[in-house]
């Protein structure tokens, strides 16, 4: 069996001596500095970077060129510190979108969330191309959690989180990026307004139905002219132009828009998206619609004047409850007072100014024709899953579902029977419907009390709610009312639907 070593009686060398105590801190500092140098040397030899770049619009910017100059800046920034091993990009997306809403940036964040991402740092080709507003403050914690550094050309290398002024610097860069967008947008809008108003110049956009683009001579900018760019203007399309004129003539004779649509469909005339599918890729191109004819009748371009700024792009929050997701772009119609019209006619007219103004008078709304529909947006048909539309008949507020049929379509075509529903009958059943809702869908709508688990919330209310309270409650809870015309029942709820008979 093994034996224990005999304890030695020789004096051992002391673990701590005066000399050791004297040189200990210096040895520790040397060890720390040596370790820091070894880490730096390893970084120089093998630091792996993920490169991110962005270009906003493919139509006005060359993605290949934009990528190259951003890549050149990134390579220059990380020179001697490693190499790029992964690349992420977003093309055709505005910088106002948050990183999780951009496919390329979202892919980068997803890759960094993997513990085995194999990335040591992220290098950005341009701060102003990558971030907007306060986006950096939302993304920086994700980089820190992944254990990667962020390198920027604007600071000449890696960001040091220990620098006290880092937040102020990033906020300043975000303001500059936002300022660049605002200034560029303002310059472009002012220039295009002047060009349209004083020169009648075509500045882009879809060509109106009834016209086509033709050459209008050399570009007035000498640099653009050297590149071969030329101006364009509208000319009457011999195929679709007469149809546009006929639409105005029919409306001038007080034919309804729906009747005009039916006549165009019966005659087999292709709708605008079918006549020019390349300019209308977002349209199905199947048939004429009431909205299509209304837009033609409301466009003063047919009087020979150039028109611009009928619509504008607004940036709204992707999710109002989560501003960090950024903004998305939506198209909004401007009022006629904000439209930009050329001072003089600049292309052949398809309708006189007098007829155009007369047609606008025919489509003016009457104040006495406006009615209040309290259930608007809440009622849905179980037959076709479409929302009910307001329907005023015999002095009574009601709703109807025509299952997708409109007055512009052939009335003889086979279709399901329209469904009609009076508002007063629905309102009378709302308190009972609210009483039957389960506790998960039915919270008290006035007194603020909460029902106990497993019981209906109506037990907590001394009096039943009014129809208006139930309507407000349904909207707050994003609940819909579904009407079954066969059973004549109204149902509501999510997981457990409840029904009442109308």
Compact summary:
This protein is of the alpha/beta class.
Describe the structure.
It contains 14 helices and 18 strands. Helix 8 (241-252) packs across helix 12 (353-362) and helix 13 (423-436) crosses helix 14. The N and C termini lie far apart (96 Å). The strands form 6 sheets. The protein has a 5-stranded mixed β-sheet, sandwiched between helices. The chain is flat. Strand 1, helix 2 and strand 2 form a beta-alpha-beta unit. The protein has 502 residues and is an alpha/beta fold.
Which descriptors would you attach to this protein?
flat; 502 residues; 18 strands; 5-stranded mixed beta sheet; disordered N terminus; 14 helices; alpha/beta; 4-stranded mixed beta sheet
Layout of helices and strands, plus pairs?
Elements lengths: L17 H29 L1 E8 L7 H15 L5 E9 L11 H11 L7 E4 L2 H4 L4 H12 L2 E4 L4 E2 L7 H34 L11 E8 L3 H5 L3 E7 L4 H12 L4 H10 L5 H4 L14 H8 L9 E2 L2 E7 L9 E7 L6 E2 L11 H10 L16 E3 L7 E5 L2 E6 L17 E4 H14 L30 H10 L4 E4 L4 E4 L5 E4 L1
Parallel strand pairs: 1-2, 1-3, 3-4, 12-16
Antiparallel strand pairs: 4-5, 6-7, 8-11, 9-10, 13-14, 14-15, 16-17, 17-18
Helix pairs in contact: 8-12, 13-14
Distance between the termini: 96 Å
Shape: flat
* β-strand number: 18
As laid out across the biggest beta sheet, the strand order is 2-1-3-4-5
Radius of gyration: 34 Å
Helical fraction equals: 25-40%
Major sheet details: 5 strands, mixed
Structural class by secondary-structure content: alpha/beta
Q: How many helical elements?
A: 14
Strand content: 15-25%
Quick check: average pLDDT? Answer: 81
* Low-confidence sequence ranges: 1-22, 35-44, 446-459
